Inverse folding.
């Protein structure tokens, strides 16, 4: 299997670049229309990140700070609406497609670069994440830019510019998501395998660039050190470090997720190319792309096999994969690429308009059939809680979990809010990390939770007054329900975490009534 021939005429390049720009713009504009058409609220992580953006810092409980900074910039320009919060991702994915155009052109041809950008913009992972703000959006762009800069730096005879650009891209990528660290061993492997790379390792430029990356990343390291490394501990917990086992089913799910993320036919083409990796790796371009696919894919596959791995943890492999596929199939199987892109577009349209399809097919949307259920009902729920907050403006708003808290804080903008964390237990979210009730003795608390009673809470307060519940039907078998309490005269936490009450989440109830705010 041979690579597509190089072609870099200025007219051809401008033609393909303009065409890709038009396609990316149309797809982005369409996704904006879809967001409005679906009538969804913010997903919990989006509301969570928005809260971070209102208190900018060098780090947060579960993520580095770049996503919060991007949302802060967007909302400063366009307000705190739904689209303004999602805008960073909506814009960063087309930017990544442009970077892939440059990468594909550098490694193969202008046509390969065009197809790389097109495959990226239409792959199901980007189609899905394109509707939501995500840390993967800046990560993928930084990964692509870092790879371009690395190739320019290695190929140059001398100079600093490309190396410093590489260090900056890696550093900013680490501030987006720690997965960017996986770029470094692949970069080292590439340099060790090439004579030019080995020569550069004896020069100061790569090492100064690495120091630049660490300098950019260092504020987050310092923040973690000051806060006892919550982000690192959270990362270790979700990857189940120290709790290894043997989970072939998890591996199967992870591989299936990669296939679906790239698309049914594109996933087959990638698997076909990887199965011929020995042959593809004989030329320099193929070797570069494989180096930035196989190590991370293998690492996360082992993580899935022996622990746990979410489907997007290996997302950076798609940067190189989107170039590899057209580079090695464009000349002989162009129709397959056309079919793969068309299939991805049809699949995305089907998912985007599934509520419309379901309505036309007389299929009721339920908790099982609505893929957007987790982003529905939150605005009406917060509006139902609003009268209680208005009636008690001096109370501290406390949500039972980060999901409730994030949406209430976003919608209601309470003057004071905090997390409930008796006994000084290790924080499980950012609210528990940065908010405290210890110095709020005597204050009233407006508590919003999932259960109708608060057993064992009496010792903490002078009085507990149930105020009512808010019920928001979403589907016939799915509704959001919260219970609101006024906890008067906070007495302080008990000294022992063992004495703290445990509040179990309430089971999902069924209702077909309109939104209700009920009072006892």
């Amino acid at each position: 299997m041979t690579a597509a021939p190089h072609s870099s005429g200025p007219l051809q390049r401008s033609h393909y670049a303009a065409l890709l720009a038009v396609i990316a713009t149309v797809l982005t504009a369409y996704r904006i229309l879809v967001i409005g058409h679906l009538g969804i609220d913010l997903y919990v992580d989006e509301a969570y990140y928005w809260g971070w953006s209102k208190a900018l810092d060098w780090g947060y409980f579960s993520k580095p700070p770049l996503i919060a900074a991007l949302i802060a910039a967007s909302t400063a320009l366009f307000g705190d609406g739904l689209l303004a919060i999602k805008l960073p991702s909506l814009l960063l994915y087309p930017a990544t497609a442009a970077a892939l155009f440059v990468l594909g052109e550098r490694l193969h041809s202008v046509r390969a670069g065009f197809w790389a950008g097109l495959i990226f913009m239409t792959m199901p992972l980007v189609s899905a994440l394109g509707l939501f703000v995500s840390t993967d959006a800046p990560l993928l762009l930084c990964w692509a830019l870092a790879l371009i800069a690395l190739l320019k730096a290695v190929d140059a005879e001398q100079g600093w510019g490309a190396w410093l650009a590489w260090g900056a891209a890696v550093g900013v990528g680490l501030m987006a998501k720690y997965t960017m660290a996986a770029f470094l061993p692949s970069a080292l492997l590439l340099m060790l395998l090439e004579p030019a790379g080995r020569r550069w390792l004896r020069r100061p430029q790569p090492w100064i660039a690495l120091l630049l990356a660490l300098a950019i990343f260092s504020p987050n390291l310092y923040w973690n050190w000051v806060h006892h490394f919550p982000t690192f501990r959270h990362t270790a917990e979700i990857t189940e470090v120290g709790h290894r086992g043997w989970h072939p089913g998890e591996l199967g799910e992870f591989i299936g997720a990669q296939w679906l993320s790239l698309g049914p036919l594109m996933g087959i083409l990638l698997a076909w190319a990887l199965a011929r990796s020995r042959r593809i790796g004989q030329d320099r371009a193929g070797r570069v792309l494989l180096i930035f696919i196989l190590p991370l894919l293998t690492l996360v596959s082992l993580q899935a096999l022996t622990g746990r791995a979410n489907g997007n943890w290996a997302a950076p492999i798609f940067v190189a994969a989107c170039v590899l596929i057209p580079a090695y199939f464009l000349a002989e199987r162009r129709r397959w690429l056309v079919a793969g892109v068309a299939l991805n577009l049809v699949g995305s349209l089907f998912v985007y308009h599934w509520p419309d399809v379901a309505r036309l097919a007389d299929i009721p949307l339920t908790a099982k059939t609505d893929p957007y259920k987790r982003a529905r009902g939150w605005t009406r729920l917060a509006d139902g809680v609003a009268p209680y907050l208005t009636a008690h403006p001096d109370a501290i708003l406390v949500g039972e979990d980060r999901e409730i808290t994030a949406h209430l804080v976003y919608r209601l903008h309470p003057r004071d809010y905090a997390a409930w964390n008796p006994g000084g237990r290790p924080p499980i979210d950012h609210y528990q990390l940065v908010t405290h009730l210890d110095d709020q003795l005597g204050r009233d608390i407006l508590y919003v939770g999932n259960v109708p009673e608060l057993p064992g809470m009496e010792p903490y307060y002078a009085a507990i007054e149930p105020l009512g519940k808010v019920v928001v039907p979403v589907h016939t078998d799915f509704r959001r329900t919260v219970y609101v309490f006024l906890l008067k005269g906070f007495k302080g936490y008990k000294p022992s975490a063992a004495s703290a009450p445990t509040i179990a989440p309430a089971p999902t109830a069924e209702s077909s009534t309109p939104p209700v705010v009920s009072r006892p």
The longest strand covers residues 461-475. The chain has a mean pLDDT of 90.
